[in-house]
């Protein structure tokens, strides 16, 4: 019963197999290899557009490099108060951007709105030379609260960005989970809705260490490769990240894994719905649940061996809140064991 | 006949195997796992001392993070003019250190001397508030010219550093190659000689993507973990780097691989010694050769399918110079085929 | 009737005179001059303690250099949401600190509390390696809302900082205005209350371009001089800043100027108190007023030639808000003219 | 007999007078004042072209802000080994550029050549993704060795920059001294010769603290104002820098002062030419002399009260070298007193 995080999960066998298959001698280094080319062309098929794709090993690197490419050091990024880039990357975006600021907006369910963005821009303009000016917006899909922006919601943000001359970045550490929840195409959820750059996550969904920064307008990627190199994120043996991305994108593995994780989350949510002293504080739309329950129940679950994190307080919710995360290896048995405990604890 | 670089080599089977073995479910993330602990304790045995060890995926990350931990943004690092940190990391040290400078010293064979270090320090002090002050020295072992600092040479630099209050960093991307050349112990070549921090390379010598930053005085490592996180170099599934390091250090794999690479380099050097129009421009002490030869011979070798890089001009050497790099998978057949071509070309 | 800002005011004649007096030939550059020594010793007398004092030309430089000296790039500063360092310095603190973050706290009247600080620290600790950790607190005295921390309030924040191992910085761009409002000693309002570093402003209160960064514990100032130099804030002819500071601190000029500015603000506040459609949205404790009034009145005042800024919306206040700032040259006649207009507009 | 530096000199009376004249009440802050507009229009007349002009207080700020505007953090600036930006600004360019590197070229007399620039570019291109790429060249006029680039020499560097797509920056801390030596027009020495940005110094030549960053192509200045603000170099009372620049540029004061300083340097050089044990190690073309002489003579001069600096060793010169700097207040009497001592010492 481990619901601590999707990053405690293992690597999908098909991905491990692809790494082993990549193990030939004397392959060109630094990305000039066929596997890296294949990862890019496969992504291009899936997203139905020409794109620039850069493999990196971590989500923090993907986000920080993407934002640094979009935003000058004296400008700013608009994002949600609880965005991963704002709270969980130890200042990586600021470091990579050379000190540019994050302008954070309150977002009770993790989603920011075009109206908030407009207001932030207006205030910055009002501040003139003294106030940093936004140059990009970053949204998380699925959000840190396990919710998902509808395609229209993304498109409205995209439109606001175009009106204001802002680039739009999507932190897609759990992009696959959002996509299978919505049932739309990858293109509809990204560039067709105005997303310029996507941090496309694989690590939480079955890879070993593989993310891709995808620019839907390759012209926006100027300088990215140099930034990746000087950040120590250019692998000499890059084929071993690219092999992961290739296997992830072949045969629908990425969607299968995401569906399995979301299904387990839904099973958990459905099972918890009945309990009188338990409340879901957010809708469950991906593979994360935020659940309010009495302290004694939390302690009883922990004592019984369930793993999860206590989360930050939720406004208006008197009970403490825990976070449960499922992954592609979460079994029905694990879920049911947890539900049984939750029902009795 | 591929002598382009040791980073075109594959992964040692034992290391691939260790990655597959690490593939259990629900392992604690961010390094709180037994494989990471094991990599550290194994390094501690090998270096015969307590130490702090941090796995990262690239050598540039290892160097830049190590130096940023040692050096404040308004200070400087002394190193050789041709040091990898100065010429081949696209400014990563400056980026990670927040703008601190590299003060470079000419070093015809890649090795700098205590006397040069003393002179650089004296000049900086003379420059007062206007001149950046050195806070660390970085040496490369084996050097970028395929030469190796003797244990005594390192110790003399270590002594100069202590006199001047400087930290001593060793870029050990090819540490194993230097070590087996010298036949000393890892401790003798590092902390016993005054080295404070080692970038301990494995990627060029059989790993997939694995380096370790080793602080022999763990107190010097303050802040390292935060710097690693904010640089995007903290893997969520860190066990998969640690598994590589573990296998690399078990059963002498690291030394065996280095011996194989060095042996191939020596075989190449011995074979080239006879040719009248070919000159080794540096002693061959690790797994790199720098060879001067007429342009026509270089072209003939390239035409015959040999892979290598043309290098920068060498002072006093009228002929162009090529670099040949061997690795643990270089075969005698490859070497001999190259030598046969070189003899006739 | 110019209430736009105290930085549209001129230079006090005594300060201009001191600059002219400093104009001898061949004075040692970069601060090794008697006027710089005198500014420091005079501050030491006034603050009744040994201290390190560094003249700089702007308040943004003073704040950013002070914070960069206190806080490592991977850490953070706690401050109020509307702090000048957070909203009006175009990211200078982040730039100088190498990307460290500001963790902002809501503060309706500009003042943050020890309880808020404790909560921010607790949350950061809870976030572990992923969340930046506070290393300093910065408070503004007088605040951006024209309010003043009582001596006890500063002391309670100082105590919270010591409990949590945080340094305490005070942005004293309007320190003199706060001091004369409180009637305490400079020592009571700073180091005796736990303030480690003060940005001591003079420019808004009669100087040409002069601020001083004062470290009450000179050991904390390590590296400050190098940071000042590499930021381009070390004047070669430093005596001309120091002469300003000297004149500012001699004969109580700094206190006289502040008293004049505060008195004008009080006169304005008293005069506005009667008007039915006008509300002071903050207590007036220094030389700034924030006044809610109907749009038509604002427009009428502007049309009549009054200069001031429209301010950001104030929660719970339906009317728009303007800011009025007085200075040492504000005359009773100017105030009364404004009041007359406000009464009729 | 003070020849330590031109920054120990006082302020020209006309400049002090202009500051006093600027001391009116309620002048718009942050540069929106008539004096700032006048400084710009006057420079435009003098340089015979439209331009963007930004006043700052120090030469280091001018240089570092100019370079940061031209060069991205992952690129580099080509300059002379002994350039002020490389050796005497404590890393300010690297700080402001976000870690971009300086690629330094040996320059025995302070002047670099188009051929050196071409070679540096070629080497960088050869280094590919691993090597920082130059984006600008910076030359100093007059140089750190007191020599002056001829107009043609600047134009040839300008042509090399255009061929290679590099911006050309001129550090003109002593621009006036170079200009009066050459007798050309300001336009000929700058934009007509391919200079894009000039750090135009006044402080060493009679101002209190005033430099101007001048972009001859205003489009290149994008972002400059934000960089200046976030570096703490935007003065609230900017009129007091602009007043200095205005007076400096009116009535030829800047040229008169430079002529006086150069004349004193020439008188010194002529007087020293005769002495048997004294050698000028560089031609004297501006207001600096570098003089080799026996240690005993240096000591005797110091003992007699002459002020100057001992300089770094000069290759091929066995005697120690001192630097003598003249300024607009150096008198014939001072020069002659020094010469008398030098003849006898």
Attribute tags:
homotetramer; 345 residues; alpha/beta; seven-stranded mixed β-sheet; four-stranded antiparallel β-sheet; 14 helices
Notes on the protein architecture:
Four copies of one chain form a homotetramer. Chain A is α/β, with parallel strands linked by helices and 345 residues long. In chain A, 42% of the residues lie in helices and 16% in strands. Chain A has helices at 13-21, 34-47, 59-70, 84-87, 92-97, 114-127, 151-164, 175-182, 186-189, 224-230, 239-249, 253-273, 295-303, 332-344, and strands at residues 52-56, 75-80, 101-105, 133-140, 167-172, 197-201, 211-215, 279-280, 288-292, 309-310, 321-325. In chain A, strands 1-7-6-5-4-2-3 form a seven-stranded mixed sheet, sandwiched between helices. In chain A, helix 6 runs parallel beside helix 7 and helix 12 (253-273) packs parallel to helix 14 (332-344). The longest helix of chain A has 21 residues, at 253-273. The mean pLDDT of chain A is 96. Chains in contact: A-B, A-C, A-D, B-C, B-D, C-D.
Write the layout of secondary structure elements.
The structure is a homotetramer of 345-residue chains.
Chain A: H1 13-21, H2 34-47, E1 52-56, H3 59-70, E2 75-80, H4 84-87, H5 92-97, E3 101-105, H6 114-127, E4 133-140, H7 151-164, E5 167-172, H8 175-182, H9 186-189, E6 197-201, E7 211-215, H10 224-230, H11 239-249, H12 253-273, E8 279-280, E9 288-292, H13 295-303, E10 309-310, E11 321-325, H14 332-344
Parallel strand pairs in A: 2-3, 2-4, 4-5, 5-6
Antiparallel strand pairs in A: 1-7, 6-7, 8-9, 9-11, 10-11
Helix pairs in contact in A: 1-11, 2-11, 6-7, 8-12, 12-14
